[in-house]
């Protein structure tokens, strides 16, 4: 968290309520709602979607025919991405693949755009002490979880070159969220879907698709479902998501704790779950499945910056649970100063990969 906000509790509450209202009433939110419900707005966007589809197909053709250049890096590249907008589970999959590659004797590194950072054009190394506003919240989370070399840059080729120059021991690169970044050649593409599948089947802005779910590729394409069941007709395995034991914010920043899991205690009283991720309801439902029946929820925009506490304080409940993606933007010392008495818990997520899927990735390298 940044410098302490000096507004009284009522102003905190009013800002939180106004922020939620703005999120729900923006044009973007109305468009997203039309993807689910149809209606006049969705119909009016279809001509733009057809134009966008033509541009996407033309761009891919230009790269395939060599009229636009793609560049190789000197090590194998695994690109992880999704066809739909919003969070489909790329970050948990990247973390899980880093661990799987290590277990097979590889020395992986990660490159990423670093969504939402201040100077998007720069190429930077991500360190444990980096700030999310400078490198992006997801890259910082990946680095803190895996401790592998990680560089961010809008141009992923330049980011990969910088990483390999600084870390010559790296022999495979994972590109987080690079499916549409065609200047970077890859050895395999992993397309991630969640419960939404292909949505209504339309491309932006009439639907959630960045490109058709089937596109020509000169390299192997693997499909992975970050869901309990397949949500398209594409063949691919499903991962098993598991929320690990809750950690206090301070313990999470320290890398863990031997203290008891507070879940049994929290089940007995009201708790606020707060999430600034692409699909916050997925997080809330996972907490409910852990037995938190008295759960209050606060959904924030994806990549919310947590410049001030988004929850009213003092509040009805002193216990708040956030995701790891949120935790990288919350400083424990500043939180204690801004919200004395609040107990903030972090819920780490582990994604278990089927052995056959790991074998397919290794074969592609």
A few lines on this structure:
The chain has 365 residues and is an alpha/beta fold.
Strands, helices and their partners?
Elements: H1 9-25, H2 27-37, H3 40-44, H4 46-64, E1 77-81, H5 90-103, E2 108-112, E3 124-125, H6 132-135, H7 137-146, E4 150-152, H8 156-166, E5 172-176, E6 188-193, E7 221-225, E8 240-243, E9 247-248, H9 249-254, H10 263-266, E10 271-275, H11 280-289, E11 295-299, E12 319-323, H12 324-327, H13 332-338, E13 343-347, E14 349-352, H14 355-364
Parallel strand pairs: 1-5, 1-6, 2-4, 2-5, 6-7, 10-11, 10-12, 12-13
Antiparallel strand pairs: 3-4, 8-14, 9-13
Helix pairs in contact: 5-7
If you had to describe this structure to a student in words, what would you say it looks like?
By secondary structure, the protein is α/β, with parallel strands linked by helices. It has 2 domains: 42-240 and 352-364, 3-Layer(aba) Sandwich (Rossmann fold), CATH 3.40.50; 245-347, no CATH class. 36% of the residues lie in helices and 17% in strands. The protein has 14 helices and 14 strands. The strands form 3 sheets. Strands 3-4-2-5-1-6-7 form a 7-stranded mixed beta sheet, with helices on both faces. Strands 9-13-12-10-11 form a 5-stranded mixed beta sheet. Strands 8-14 form a two-stranded antiparallel ribbon. Helix 5 (90-103) packs parallel to helix 7 (137-146). It is globular. Residues 1-25 have low confidence and may be disordered.
């Amino acid at each position: 968290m940044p410098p302490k906000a000096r507004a009284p509790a009522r102003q905190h509450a009013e800002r939180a309520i106004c922020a939620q209202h703005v999120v729900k009433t923006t044009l973007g939110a109305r468009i997203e709602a039309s993807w689910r419900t149809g209606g006049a707005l969705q119909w009016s966007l279809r001509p733009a979607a057809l134009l966008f589809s033509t541009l996407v197909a033309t761009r891919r053709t230009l790269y395939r025919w060599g009229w636009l250049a793609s560049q190789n890096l000197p090590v194998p590249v695994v690109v992880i991405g999704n066809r739909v907008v919003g969070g489909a589970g790329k970050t948990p999959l990247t973390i899980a693949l880093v661990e799987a590659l290590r277990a097979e004797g590889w020395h992986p590194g990660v490159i990423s755009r670093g969504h939402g950072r201040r100077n998007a054009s720069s190429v930077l190394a991500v360190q444990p002490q980096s700030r999310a506003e400078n490198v992006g919240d997801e890259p910082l989370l990946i680095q803190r979880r895996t401790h592998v070399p990680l560089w961010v840059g809008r141009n992923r080729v330049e980011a990969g070159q910088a990483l390999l120059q600084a870390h010559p021991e790296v022999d495979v690169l994972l590109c987080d969220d690079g499916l549409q970044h065609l200047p970077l050649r890859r050895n395999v593409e992993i397309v991630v879907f969640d419960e939404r599948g292909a949505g209504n089947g339309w491309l932006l802005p009439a639907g959630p698709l960045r490109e058709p779910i089937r596109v020509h590729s000169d390299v192997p394409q693997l499909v992975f479902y970050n869901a309990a069941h397949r949500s398209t007709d594409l063949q691919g395995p499903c991962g098993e998501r598991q929320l690990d034991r809750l950690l206090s914010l301070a313990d999470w920043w320290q890398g863990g704790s031997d203290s008891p899991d507070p879940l049994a205690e929290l089940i007995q009283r009201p708790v606020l779950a707060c999430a600034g991720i692409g699909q916050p309801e997925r997080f809330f439902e996972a907490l409910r499945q852990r037995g938190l029946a008295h759960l209050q929820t606060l959904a924030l925009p994806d990549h919310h910056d947590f410049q001030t506490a988004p929850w009213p304080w003092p509040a009805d409940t002193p216990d708040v649970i956030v995701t790891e993606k949120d935790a990288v933007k919350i400083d424990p010392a500043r939180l204690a100063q801004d919200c004395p008495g609040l107990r903030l818990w972090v819920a780490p997520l582990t994604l278990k990969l089927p052995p056959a899927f790991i074998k397919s990735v290794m074969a592609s390298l």
